[in-house]
Write a structure and sequence with these properties.
With 392 residues, the protein is an alpha/beta fold. The chain has two domains: 162 residues, 2-Layer Sandwich (VC0802-like); 213 residues, HUPs (Rossmann fold, 3-Layer(aba) Sandwich), CATH 3.40.50.620. The two termini are 49 Å apart. It has 14 helices and 15 strands. Helix 7 packs antiparallel against helix 8 and helix 8 crosses helix 9. The strands form two sheets. Strands 1, 2, 3, 4, 5, 6, 7, 8 and 9 form a nine-stranded mixed β-sheet that branches. It has a six-stranded mixed β-sheet with strand order 14-13-10-11-12-15. The protein is elongated, with a radius of gyration of 27 Å.
């Protein structure tokens, strides 16, 4: 019997006039991510169907699991809309399973099918009870739930359900620039931003020789893990050393983090404009560190008019860590290689900075010229291990 992956959209189905745009974006994303497999993808307004080779199923499922815009999917048998043939083939499938209790759920969108949904539940339930020993019906907590969807051209039978990643397909929103530090929070923020359909570039601020090549490789590994949700990520590596050294040479120690973040936001603003990005994304969580109090955020934010998306803002650290483990970034994030945000942390950073003081301190050096001349290199990071372009 033919099998397909039957994909259900979930949140996409709530769209009205632009539903086709969201469905087509999901379709295009799956085509691109599955181009190395022998698949055929069909779509309609309610579902998507992936025809596959059995020997590639596990790999295809891994791709589908990491594709945003999918609420649920099933491995479904494709049957003809003929009552007797349906009964025969369905019984063959069910007999291959081990179970003691079951339930039948039929949905009949094809109103020309001669038996109503509830009646067909009874027909199939009776057929199974008659042909399989030592089983019973349990409508509340069955071991096996037999789902039948009778459509216009075919009937789909499935016995399993797989949770998708949800959200919107990547590409239904414009590009955003993620400040990817190498810590636990920023990869989670990137994942959550992509889940809302944002095309993601990553920006890493490094300060060699104060930071190490291992710290850079750690960030590349995190970008690679994120790329599994979108195929490829542009990683922009900013040489922040001259600016950071100027800050710590010229500015008050307690204001160094505030001014450092203001410089980063100015560079992010520059990158957004040059790469046609519509937002800055970061992993800030309210109150977690000195630069993430609301007062600090206000002072730091004042250097840009670009929207700043903070997906982790209202999550506590344990919630963020749970998501990091789920998306397999946690173990990489905790590798002991410091980034430029942690290597020069003052003993007592200001918690409630004043904007006028921050401006006064940063005007002690020619930061505008340094930002204009800052060195930025870009690499393309792919999901495959050790697969990324040289510095462009």
């Amino acid at each position: 019997m033919e099998r397909v992956l039957l994909i259900k959209y979930g949140e996409l189905s709530t769209k009205k006039g632009n539903r086709n745009f969201f469905i087509k974006t999901l379709y295009d994303n799956l085509l691109d991510k599955l181009k190395d497999y022998n698949v055929r993808i069909k779509k309609d307004r309610a579902h998507m169907y992936i025809e596959f080779n059995d020997n590639e199923l596990d790999d295809i499922k891994r791709v589908v699991d990491k594709t945003f815009g999918i609420h649920m999917y099933h491995i479904a048998y494709v049957l003809k809309n003929d009552v007797e043939e349906l009964k025969k083939e369905l019984l063959e499938v069910v007999k291959s399973k081990k179970f003691s209790t079951f339930k039948v759920v039929t949905k009949r969108s094809n109103k020309n099918f001669p038996i109503h949904s509830q009646d067909f539940n009874h027909v199939i339930g009776g057929l199974i009870l008659k042909n399989i020993d030592n089983i019973s019906v349990d409508v509340h907590n069955p071991e096996l739930e037999i789902k039948i969807e009778i459509r216009e051209n075919n009937t789909y039978l499935y016995l399993d359900s797989y949770q998708g990643s949800g959200g919107y397909p990547v590409g239904t929103q414009p590009r955003g620039m993620l400040m990817l530090s190498g810590g636990i929070d920023s990869p989670v923020a990137g994942y959550l931003a992509m889940k809302r359909g944002i095309v993601l570039d990553c920006v890493y601020f490094e300060a060699m020789p104060h930071t190490s090549i291992e710290a850079r490789n750690k960030v590349i590994s995190l970008a690679r893990k994120l790329s599994s949700y979108c195929k490829v990520i542009n990683l922009h590596i900013v040489n922040f050393t001259p600016i950071q050294e100027a800050i710590y040479k010229n500015c008050r120690e307690d204001y160094c983090i505030t001014i450092m973040r203001r410089m980063m936001y100015r560079i992010m603003d520059k990158l957004c404009n040059s790469h046609k990005a519509f937002a800055i994304v970061n992993g800030e969580s309210i109150g977690q560190v000195a630069s993430q109090t609301l007062t600090s955020m206000r002072v730091i934010n004042s250097v840009t008019n670009m929207p700043v998306i903070r997906p982790c803002a209202c999550l506590d650290k344990l919630e963020i860590m749970d998501i990091a483990r789920k998306i397999d970034t946690y173990e990489t994030s905790i590798l002991p290689f410091e980034d430029c945000c942690t290597v020069f942390v003052p003993k007592h950073p200001v918690i409630n900075p004043r904007l006028d003081t921050a401006i006064e301190e940063e005007n002690k050096f020619d930061y505008e010229k340094m930002i204009e001349e800052v060195e930025i290199n870009t690499i393309k990071v792919f999901e495959k291990e050790d697969s990324f372009s040289d510095l462009l």
